[in-house]
Amino acid sequence: MKVPEERVSAATFEALKFEELAMPLFDQLYNFARWLTQDTAEAEDLVQETYTKALRGFSSFQLGTNFRAWMYRILRNSFLSSRTGLRTMVAIDGEADENLLPAESTTPESILIEQADRETVQQALADLPVPFREILLLCEVEEMSYQEISETLAIPMGTVMSRLFRARKALGGLVREKIKGGRHGV
Amino acid sequence: MACEHWGSKEYADRLSAYLDGELDPAEARALGAHLRECAACAANALEQVQMKRSVQLAGKRYSPRPEFRNRIAKAASTSSKRRPKSSWQWQILAVPALAVLIISLAVNFYGGRESARRQHVYSELADLHVSALASATPVDVVSTDRHTVKPWFQGKIPFSFNLPELQGTDFTLLGGRVTYLAQTPGAHLIYQVRKHEISVFIFQDRAFEARTLEHGGEGTASAPSGPVSALSFNVENWTQNGLRYFVLGDVGANDIEALSKLLHDAH
Lengths: 186, 267
Prior knowledge:
Chain A is mainly alpha-helical and about 190 residues long. Chain A has helices at about 10-20, 25-35, 40-55, 65-80, 85-95, 110-115, 120-125, 130-140, 145-155, 155-185. Residues about 1-10 and about 90-105 of chain A have low confidence and may be disordered.
C-alpha cells in the first residue's frame, strides 16, 4: 500500500486558483499600469509587483468578493507608493475635485471628442491628472461598475459619479485645446 | 424646441448613469422613454455614447511585451506547481537550507492535521457508499450507458462531467444518484467490478474547497497518484477541470487505480 504524500499544500492549492484568476487580467492590468506610469519599464515593474503582492496576499482574499477590483486596487496602491505615484499623490491631495473643473465652453465636449482622432484623445488622456485618467480608464476601458470603481479607488460612490463627470469635462477641455492647437499649427 | 432638462446638472448626472448602465430599471425606463420622445436629448445621449466609445478605443493602447507576459505567466505557474522553488523575487532571497527546514516543519505540522481531516472526509464518503448500497434503490438512474447517466444529472447538480468508455474493461456502470457532502451537491456513480461495487463521487472543487476542506481533506494533485487505505476501503482522489473526484470501494488498490485512470483520461 502506498503511503499518501502531502501532494499539494493548501498554499499551493491557492496558488493554482490564483493563476487561473489572475492571468486572464494580465493584459488589461498592464494597459492600466502603462497609462498610470507613462513608461514601459515602470509599468512592467508595477505589474510584477502587483502579481507578487497579490500572490502573497491571496490567502487573505475572500472568495466571493471582487477579485478584479482587488487586483486593480493592489496595482494602484503599489503605484501610489512608487516614486512616480508619490508625485501623483501630491496632486491628488493638493487638488480637490472642484479645483480640477475645467473652464466652461459653449461646445459640448462630447462633440469635440467625437471629432478628434484616436491619437488626439490618447494625448489628452495622457495629459489628464491621474485621478481623472484612472477613473475614465476604469469606467470606459475596463467597463467597471461604479461599485467596482468605488472599491478599486477606495472612494465613495458619490465621488465616483462627480469625479467621472469632471474627468469627462476635463478630457473635453484638453481635446479642445489640442484641436485648436493643431489648427493653429497648420 | 428646448427641452426642460437642457442645462440641468441633475439630468446630466442621470443621463451619465443611464449610459454607464447604473440607473435602476424604473429610472432607466423613464429616461429611455424621454429619449425616444425628445430629439435634442437623444442627440446629446448619442454624442455621449460616441464619446465613451472614443475613450474606450483610445484607452486600449498598450500591450505587454510577449516575453514579459511569458515571464509572469511562468512565475505564476511555477509558484503554483513548485511554490517553494519559484523564482519570485522575495523567494530568491530565501536561504535554501532554511526553506527546507521550514517546509519540513510545515509538512510535519500539517501532515497530522491534514491526515485527520482527510480521514474525516473519507469516513463520510464511506458512509455514503455503504448507505447507498444498503438502500433498496442504490441508484436513481439505472443504466449501464454513460450517455444515459451523464445527461440525467443535468439540472440536478451545478456542473457537468465526462464518463469513460468501459468497453474492454472489467468495469460496469450501474447508475448514479445525487448526493451531498457538507451541503455541497455532487454526483455519486456506482460501478461494478467482479461483483464488487465502487463508488465514484464528483463535487465542484470550488464549493468543496470553500465549504468542506476546513473539515475535510487536503488540496490534491491534478492527477490520481495512488489509492490509499481508509476504514478498510481503498480511496483515490484528485482534482480535474475544477472538479474533485473520489473513487472508493472495498476492492483492491489496483482496481481503484484502474478506474481512476479511466475517469481521469475521459477528459
